What we know:
The complex is a heterodimer of chains A (372) and B (352).
Chain A: H1 17-25, E1 40-51, E2 54-66, E3 71-75, H2 82-90, E4 98-105, E5 108-109, H3 115-124, E6 126-129, H4 133-136, H5 143-154, H6 159-172, H7 178-181, H8 191-202, E7 209-213, H9 221-238, E8 241-246, H10 249-255, E9 258-263, E10 266-272, H11 273-278, H12 283-290, H13 331-335, E11 341-344, E12 347-349, H14 364-371
Parallel strand pairs in A: 3-8, 3-9, 6-7, 7-8
Antiparallel strand pairs in A: 1-2, 1-4, 4-5, 9-10, 10-12, 11-12
Chain B: E1 18-32, E2 38-53, E3 57-61, H1 68-75, E4 83-88, E5 91-92, H2 98-105, E6 108-111, H3 115-118, H4 125-135, H5 141-154, H6 159-162, H7 172-184, E7 190-194, H8 202-219, E8 222-227, H9 230-236, E9 239-244, E10 247-253, H10 254-259, H11 264-272, H12 312-316, E11 322-323, E12 330-331
Parallel strand pairs in B: 3-8, 3-9, 6-7, 7-8
Antiparallel strand pairs in B: 1-2, 1-4, 4-5, 9-10, 10-12, 11-12
Helix pairs in contact in B: 4-5, 4-7, 5-7, 7-8
Amino acid sequence: MTRPLGQRVRRVAATTAGAWSAARDEPAPSGPEPGAAPLLDVAGLRVRFRSHGRAVHAVQGISFTVEPGQTVAIIGESGSGKTVSAYAVMGLLPRTAHVFGSIRFKGVELVGRSERDLQQHRGRNAAMVFQDPERSLNPTMRIGSQITEAVRRHLPLDRKEAQERAVELLGMVRIPTPERRFYEYPHQLSGGMRQRVVIAIALACKPALLIADEATTALDVTTQAQIMDLLLDLQQELGTALLMISHDLALAASYAEEVIVMYAGRVVERAAARDLFGSVRMPYTRALLNAIPRTELEPHVLLPVVGGLPPDLSAVGPGCPFAPRCPDAQQDCQRLTPPLEEHEIGHWWACWHPCEGGPGEGGPGGAKEAAQ
Amino acid sequence: MTPPAAANGASRPGGGDVLLEVRHLVQEFVLRDYGGAKGGVLQAVSDVSFGLCAGETLGIVGETGSGKSTLARSVIQAPPPKAGAVIFEGKDLVGLSSRAMKPVRRHLQIVFQDPFTSLDPKWAVSRIVAEPLVAYAIGSRRERRDRVNALLDLVGLDPARYGRRHPRELSGGQAQRVAIARALVLEPKLILCDEPVSSLDVLVQAQVLNLFEKLRSDLKLSYLFIAHDLALVKQVSDRVAVMYLGKLCEIGPVRDIYRQPLHPYTLALLASIPSPTPGKRVTRGVISGELPSPLNPPSGCRFRTRCPRAQDRCAAEAPELRAVGGQGHLVACHFPLTGGSSTPAESTAVRR
């Protein structure tokens, strides 16, 4: 394996291995302790891939934290780096990815861990639900066996106990008649039911963090509402933190406590959902918000749009990445990259010329609310 | 907007400028078990009727498996429906030979959901857009080239820059624009749009939606716009039809449907939409349960297994589409949410 010197991920001293085995034996802490360290602490994370001889800077220095039991949403378009960030947290990035920075889970550094350590991390600490339940399940295995497999992989249970646990999990994700469903194959289930099975597998070992990567994107609106309700219910029951990865700002507004907006590998705005949607400051977030069709709008109304495409992540120049598309861009936006700073308490944005703090100012929805 | 002449679509021919009329359309698929034995009949669309006027956009909404895509395909006779009539410009398309269909298809184009699977990956953009002209032997090579360039310009792609590219060198939004250009090149009267923006990012989706709007007003197009997102459909439609398990639940003018939904299913769909308005949460548990198997649909009203207002009558007899409320607003429900013979159930019944 070729490993460019000095570019490879930072290796962490072997002394932390003890922390892993200790964490393995302890049950996951159930509730948030006041003043405790965050569950997940991502600091200055950068991920670079090599593609056709060019370096693609997929994630360019992002930092965020997730507290135990919290719901955080990462929002962005395709190619904004949201999924790569989630994969980094899971330790699922391919070997070809160069990861810099720090990802601490319950205080333990993940960047640079061996695959064996990461396997312990996955499932136990953090689990992931992917977009397409069809592709995350094995079509040739009964769903019961797939859940049992995940249970036995991480918990010291014999076959019978694991099966009981699997049926229990199927019941927990509100699948009717779990004893019967246990023996069914994925193709016998609907999309929503399959996603419930995937959630059951993800929750098999009571992870402290559940990452839902576009988990409801492939589902119908009614099913989406059911699955989101289920995730929030389970979060209440189990005290799991939820990291939602989505392109849908409306979904984040409806379900998340904290929202992180990513663009071109950077975090451009971050705030509590209430504050963010009440007072959008970053023009990109405003553009996203205004582009959502809403039932409050009249038919045949043109949506306010921004032109252009996201920048090429292999040729990152100076300046704000959104500047070429930004309606408010000025001279200095092209030259200097605005840093992500906490301009108001709990509200971070990276913009030299932020919007006025109106709700989606310039948008029809915003105008309506301002009138009230 | 002229009120739709064929509001119920079933029996109002000659109502002026009716472009498309679908009457009692039924589409079935025979499922085969091992060895080719008949495994059952799936009725994907059962007894659907509606009309569409020239210059009008009818949105069709429904969940996966509601039969909305099958309906669109039945309209373009790919494959022809099992029963019923599809009257386009006064001519019944059902049963026409493929030779007789060819001149009709010129005015009846379709844009699919995934541009990358509906565009030939080995062809350059200009050749893709020119293909319909070649198929209909229209114009000289030079005229075709000019027409293709004009079309690419119209959909917002610079012909000099994108004409020689291949689909893989385009983003999703650009590829969908190519698909739209290809659908427009023959100057059709009606375009069927089958989830044309579902695979696009929000910003690009808004751009393409605006493009559809611009083309509609510039070229006087009619759309049959299929989507699963009610908010999106509202943006483009004059009238909306809601489908559930192969049946039409409700059809009517956009404003009426969104202001006063009559069918409990429409209300559930509306309540499921996450809203970006802060503090406005989705009503929890809008409807429970799953779409029943289309192989064995429930008796009577097909929505009754998930409906909070269902009564004995709903299982016994299937509700017919009937006018309730405003003009041209039809609903297939024994106990619609307002008006008519309503139950004492509260209007907030759609909750757990």
